[in-house]
Design a protein that fits this description.
transmembrane; alpha+beta; single chain; MFS transporter; elongated; transmembrane helix; membrane; SH3 type barrels
């Protein structure tokens, strides 16, 4: 609604203003100059001889502008503050492709840092933090020693704690929410060069939080725990014997798979409803299940059996490296 009221109000105000100036040009110079420089003030002037129709049009425009601004402040306080501060254009974050939402608000972090065992992602376009996400591994530090962090809602064990902060308006305290589990997290960090680190993250919280984050990023300084993880990996490789087993057990026959076009699945999801699908993410994790549908956020939904229940997993298309379909016989 506010996207229509604000521009419509501005157009009506400008049209009424121009109309008022054109009409008063036939009258005294002083009235014409006053209408040209302070047109909206004529709405408060009575008995000055200004015509009613152009002032009525300006009044409608002012009311539309005020109503649109009110709804913008109510629905999107961050956008309203950006307009008031003069930030008409929002520049994308430099050096990364991260995007998502925090409690329904757009989240494009421009600062990604490690503080001890905490991964901190912040969005501060004007020097003031508007939204931030902190992933605390203090209670789940063993996850950092694995090649990649992969957590699904049904996984047991310790979970990193999430701290969500978001902007709620210039005159209100920032929102704060703590989440300790029941979310999906895929985090992969790889050292590049001497001290730089490339990472990929995919985070998806339950629908009630309206929060997700996906994309790639780069760190200019490697976190301290990476050296500990790399040392652990070297010790594991040294301890693994290179002798193959003498009597390997025969492997059961696996179904035949054929590569599937991701674009075809996204364009015509009904054609693949009920198909057995195998997904390989960029972090190397493989998921196999029955394709059900595309979610309203255009995520691929797979149904996996978990005992007597069914679990639905949501995957962002950007996180999928390979998608395959079981050959139907």
């Amino acid at each position: 609604m506010e996207a229509l009221l604000i521009p419509a109000g501005a157009i009506l105000l400008a049209m009424g203003w121009i109309w008022l100036v054109a009409v008063t040009m036939r009258r005294s110079v002083s009235r014409m100059v006053l209408a040209l420089l302070f047109g909206p003030l004529t709405l408060l002037m009575r008995g000055m001889g200004y015509p009613v129709p152009p002032r009525l049009l300006m009044l409608i425009g002012v009311l539309a502008l005020v109503s649109g601004s009110f709804w913008l402040q109510h629905q999107h306080p961050d956008r309203a503050d950006q307009l008031i501060a003069g930030d008409w254009l929002v520049e994308p974050a430099a050096g990364g492709t991260l995007r998502g939402t925090i409690m329904g608000q757009p989240f494009n972090p421009d600062s990604i840092t490690w503080r001890g065992d905490d991964l901190l992602l912040e969005e501060s376009p004007d020097g003031r933090t508007r939204r931030s996400l902190t992933i605390r591994f203090g209670n789940a530090r063993e996850l950092l020693l694995q090649p990649s962090v992969e957590r699904l809602p049904e996984d047991d064990g310790a979970w990193p704690e999430l701290i969500l902060r978001w902007h709620t308006g210039a005159l209100a305290e920032p929102g704060l929410r703590r989440v300790t589990g029941d979310y999906s997290l895929s985090l992969d960090l790889t050292r590049v060069g001497d001290d730089q680190v490339e990472g990929r993250i995919h985070l998806h919280l339950p629908t009630s939080y309206s929060t997700w984050l996906t994309g790639a990023f780069r760190l200019t300084t490697a976190p301290d725990w990476m050296s500990e993880r790399e040392q652990t990996e070297r010790l594991v490789l040294q301890a693994v014997p290179s002798v193959a087993p003498e009597n390997p057990r025969p492997m059961p026959a696996s179904p035949a798979w054929r590569e599937l076009s991701l674009l075809a699945l996204l364009d015509e999801p009904d054609l693949f409803s009920g198909a057995q699908i195998r997904l390989t993410t960029w972090t190397g994790r493989v998921h196999q299940g029955v394709f059900r549908q595309l979610s309203p956020e255009q995520r691929i939904v797979l149904s996996l059996p978990r005992g007597a229940n069914q679990v639905e997993l949501h995957f962002h298309p950007l996180d999928i490296r390979l998608i395959e379909e079981a050959v139907r016989r």
